[in-house]
């Protein structure tokens, strides 16, 4: 049996599951309460203080010729992607020996609480990575500074990136981030177990009929082919299904929370069906999908692109990755994006540190092909068009979904509106509440918070 492993959390853009010990994907279902913590921890009001004016200059395009500086770099890359980012920063420092990058990896849920508080005290990092749904909130609260000069220096705009990855960085007529990647849901399939139950290990299912047929084949051999947990299901798994059934977590124009729709109910009921029909154990642990998969006890899991590195570390595991099967009739998947930002520390930044930080963002954007080794799809079109990208294995498969990825709309406070999603899904899957009732009540609360945020942020 292959050894089990822990995977650090990678948060989603919504609510998180009610579990204290979750795997990376499991935490996709849990702790967006960090969004609330962000509001509480950041001392400036919603109007904020004026954002720091971007320094005049080349936005980092021409390198750095100032005195030696050390830059603090914060992010939440605590899993298999962390070492790859460490290698990239080491390469950068060799190329720019006067710029030392000191990284600090903080679990995402703590990160989003700690960052605004540190910035408000003038003790924040010089460079940071932020999920796409957090950019507008932190821009509105002046936790980060506008980066139009960096994007201009790169010579890149909306047409040079996956469009919605660029659009989400816009707020109040300025651009506040540099898109680094897209991390989307994907299908992981275990070749060994597929072969054991009589399936072609090189032909993963592409639709609901093929998917359920494969699960039936596993069931006939005494295997539960897809482990589903009420604790982690609210993450990218249930959200992907909601999108595939034609719904939205939040209306695309940001006007209303919509996860309580018929599509949301269908998504939850489909997952409940997997348990009812015996395709999944009834009480799988939050990380049961990962543990069963890497121990050759299941066929499939829907998980994030960040699982590539941890699965590669399980040397005896024979696995592949593909686009998510179309279960609900609409081609759609959950997705997120890491965006590079520069915090706006109170008191202003030293001009040399500010310039050096921009040099790093510029450099990292240009080297995002190497970041694909962490399972992340580069956000830049020209990087994905590089012939070397075709050598990136599973990431190439995930990139095939870029035409139908889904983010929540880029409005301040969006994560606050989705705090009740995860508990509602979990309670419905556990039979504690009727699905429509649970989602409807959570949606009502979300819309109240959405209205409050509209008044708060304007």
State the gist of this model:
The chain folds into two domains: 185 residues, Periplasmic binding protein-like II (D-Maltodextrin-Binding Protein, domain 2), CATH 3.40.190; 201 residues, Periplasmic binding protein-like II (D-Maltodextrin-Binding Protein, domain 2, 3-Layer(aba) Sandwich), CATH 3.40.190. The chain contains 18 helices and 13 strands. Strands 7, 8, 9, 10, 12 and 13 form a six-stranded mixed sheet that branches. A five-stranded mixed sheet has the order 2-1-3-11-6. A two-stranded antiparallel sheet has the order 4-5.
Produce the secondary structure layout.
Layout (H helix, E strand, L loop, with lengths): L32 H9 L27 E7 L5 H15 L3 E7 L2 H13 L6 E5 L3 H6 L7 H7 L8 H5 L2 E2 L2 E2 L2 E2 L1 E10 H6 L11 H13 L15 H9 L17 H15 L11 H7 L5 E5 L3 H6 L5 E4 L10 E4 L1 E4 L9 H16 L1 H4 L5 E2 L2 H4 L9 H6 L5 E2 L14 H9 L5 H23 L1
Parallel strand pairs: 1-2, 1-3, 10-13
Antiparallel strand pairs: 3-11, 4-5, 6-11, 7-8, 7-9, 7-10, 7-12
What report would you give on this structure?
By secondary structure, this protein is of the alpha+beta class. It has two domains: 26-31 and 184-335 and 420-446, Periplasmic binding protein-like II (D-Maltodextrin-Binding Protein, domain 2); 34-180 and 337-390, D-Maltodextrin-Binding Protein, domain 2. The chain contains 18 helices and 13 strands. The chain has helices at 33-41, 81-95, 108-120, 135-140, 148-154, 163-167, 191-196, 208-220, 236-244, 262-276, 288-294, 308-313, 351-366, 368-371, 381-384, 394-399, 421-429, 435-457; strands at residues 69-75, 99-105, 127-131, 170-171, 174-175, 178-179, 181-190, 300-304, 319-322, 333-336, 338-341, 377-378, 405-406. The strands form three sheets. Strands 7, 8, 9, 10, 12 and 13 form a six-stranded mixed β-sheet that branches. Strands 2-1-3-11-6 form a five-stranded mixed β-sheet. The model is unreliable at 1-9 and 11-56 (pLDDT under 50).
